[in-house]
């Protein structure tokens, strides 16, 4: 599990890897295996910052540098563990530093330097099979000793180098010409691919709406199976069925996209705050990924509903499918818009109810003899044009010219 967690962090190719107690809860062998892997990560050129307590000698010898803190968080030692060649002793620099303090007992042969240094500063607990090196507390202020040491002065000199904590006069100022390193086309390509992958990996969302479209097409197609549209009553019934199916498909798409888009909104706000990408390409990717699924759901509906209603024209079938798919796509985009514009999913759902309730003013649900203001309300509602096309064009091509003239509705009379 420890290796899996570290592997997940390495998947992002970080330049600096932070590990908090990677050997906690492990035996000596497992801890050595984990730290051998961490050592390989460090050898690959990455910086590894690791907190560790009471390590075994095998684990301790894997580190390059040590930051030793006493109780209270004060620094007792910071520097390389080993001396430069030809001194090949393990932790030679650390041992020489503490043994140079007169009050500190020398490290016995074969003892763990990690245990020894912790006992020197009064923070050690001997591990299993290890003997306590010091029996009395050393009366030395290790914090003051380090502040006066050569190691502290070397640390300060390193921090005062130009380009570390202050600008370097020999190097040009680092200026970013753009908020984002990737080009616009790279952002667009990555975001479109990301959303296509997300949609492909969310079958619960896509399969549900495909099955709903299929069931709606069969159920409403059977309502007027092979209906006759040569009378006003038959034509009016068919228009009502088309109106209902169009609204059901649109409302289903609107309601279905709310929780899905709301879930993605959290990551969008986080990534947008860090200027990961341009918001324009994000919304283009989100809208583009919907197109194939919307058109396929419209295809499943039309391929059953259209012939069951008694229509036979292939041209009208294609136009009906495209127009219905565009209407569903519009409802889906409205859902995405309100999710990002409004604070919660619930508020977006309420606004969607009000928007879709305005379809009662659309031409399919109003009679030509109604007051003229209903036409005005119908014109400004979002489903107006789509429902008008779906309710009229199939009958326009399915009926003969003489039949259309005989079925002409009465003109509007002034009130």
Automatic annotation (TrEMBL):
It is found in: Membrane. It is a multi-pass membrane protein. GO terms for cellular component: membrane. Keywords: Membrane, Transmembrane, Transmembrane helix, Transport. Its main location: membrane. The chain crosses the membrane at residues 207-225, 237-258, 279-305, 311-330. One of its GO terms (molecular function) is ABC-type transporter activity. It comes from the Eukaryota. InterPro entries: ABC2_TM (IPR013525), P-loop_NTPase (IPR027417). The keyword Metal-binding does not apply. Residues 186-355 form the ABC-2 type transporter transmembrane domain. The keyword Isomerase does not apply. This is Unnamed protein product. It comes from Phytophthora fragariaefolia. The lineage of its organism: Eukaryota, Sar, Stramenopiles, Oomycota, Peronosporomycetes.
